[in-house]
Amino acid sequence: MNDRQDLAGKRLVLGLAGGVACYKAAELLRLLVKAGARVQVVMTDAAQQFITPMTMQALSGEPVLTSQWDVREPNAMAHINLTRHADAVLVAPASADLLAQLAQGRAAELLGLVCLARPLARCALLLAPAMNREMWAHPATQRNAAQVVSDGAVLLGPSSGAQACGEIGDGRMLEPEELLEDVIAFLSPKPLAGERVLITAGPTFEAIDPVRGLTNRSSGKMGFALARAAREAGADVTLVAGPVHLPTPRGVTRIDVQSAQEMLAAVLPRAALHGIFIATAAVADWRPARLAEHKIKKGGKKQPPVFELTENADILAIVAALPEPPYCVGFAAESEHLAVHARTKLERKKLPLVVGNLGPATFGRDDNALLLVDAHGEQTLPAGGGTADKLTLARALVAEIARRRVERGGT
Ligand code: CTP
Q: Using CB atoms within 10 A as the burial measure, which of 170, 200, 322, 397 is most buried?
């Protein structure tokens, strides 16, 4: 974890309807506050059967509202006051009953009233359903969910898995970290709305025999951060990942590959369907010319084996040479002379933008510094020099790519 304030300056209303998932709402609140949001909590009567307002008050630092008849509000209009300055109302958990209330515009409880009284154009309604799988699958709930979505609400989840009742299926509330990621994405500017972005990430693994291979120290973190940042910016993102153990960013389509040949096979048919291609993968330049069918045994041999290598295709150069290539961004991981090598790659692979970084200083780390090299000159990220965490850099880079796309007459 780092102390990035992804929700600094944002104001949220966090609504809790009744459900056992209320226990996760406390952790969600903690994450929202830690990310810099100011959060006002509203709880239904049913929610208070599962968790107390005391807990939520302690975590939010604000009085928790539970009734529209609360005389503490000076103008006695909590339902109006709450959403006039809020960026969004997030209901987590949103029970089947709450969805039914919202679908009908009912306002018998403060939470329904707040959702109904919010300014539709300015204050989004995000709902994280949580209920038993039969309740979620019931035609009445599905009808209500479709209705609230057509009325402008956004559903976050539900996900699938083991439920508190012991059954397994759809209806689990998303985990607090997943909800946080979705809320941040929802509230982010959308310079890549309608854009499709294809990204390669991580190392490749070039097999020698069934148990050994050639690979490198790329962690994939920068590519995964870029996938998340592009999705936050509104793009439809496909991530072709070499062998790494990183969680897939929310809302991103992931294709796992091992070798450079597999990566090329995943990228090539998709490249022309995307407006932007970002090649962050540390693709192995060579692979063993022959793959041994069985493990190569030491056996008592005196001489170590000698491997012949053959060159891998340059995925980025192939995509950049397509008749109608996407906007191609290359990465240059170097150990010295960053600007010179990055510009050589820009020209050799005929790219509009190359992003340089010092490989040994960045592999596996959370922080990095980037040098953007294009036909006009050079630019460092972070702008003032120094280093920044990879997600912060990824967001800044995505903004730069979006700006250049607009200048070139893209979307
Ligand atoms: N790249 C690629 N396919 C390859 C090799 C590289 O798509 N077979 C991409 C990388 O994803 C990166 C860029 O090309 O965006 C530069 O990769 P790098 O390995 O730094 O450069 P090379 O072209 O391999 O040149 P060199 O090894 O001389 O540094």
A: 200
Quick one: which of 18, 75, 68 has its CA closest to 48?
18
Is the pLDDT reported for residue 324 higher than 70?
Answer: yes
Residues tagged active-site: 165
Between helix 22-34 and helix 53-60 the angle, nearest 10°, is 10
Q: How many Cβ atoms from other residues are within 10 Å of residue 391's Cβ?
A: 22
Q: Are residues 144 and 214 in the same domain?
A: no
Residue 301 has pLDDT above 80, yes or no: no
Structural domain range at position 263: 196-287+307-407
Pairing outcome for strands 370-374 and 377-381: antiparallel
CA atoms within 13 A on the CB side of 231: 23
- Residues contacting ligand 1 via CB (< 6 Å): 200, 260, 279, 281, 283, 285, 312, 314-316, 330-333, 345
Which mutation among 315, 334, 346, 370 tests ligand 1's pocket best, with the greatest number of atoms within 8 A of CB?
315
Confidence of residue 410 (pLDDT cuts 50, 70, 90): low
Q: Give me the helices (H) in 35-109, please.
A: 53-60, 78-84, 96-104
Which atom of ligand 1 lies nearest, measured to the CA of 285?
8
Closest atom of ligand 1 relative to the 341 alpha carbon = 29
- Same domain flag for 82 and 179: yes
For ligand 1, what atom is nearest to the CA of residue 348? 23
pLDDT computed for residue 361 by the predictor: 73
> How far away, in angstroms, is 331 Cα from ligand 1 center?
7
pLDDT digits (tens, 9 = 90+) for 385-397: 899 999 999 999 9
Q: Are residues 134 and 267 in the same domain?
A: no
Same domain for 172 and 52: yes
Peptide bond into 158 cis (omega under 30): yes
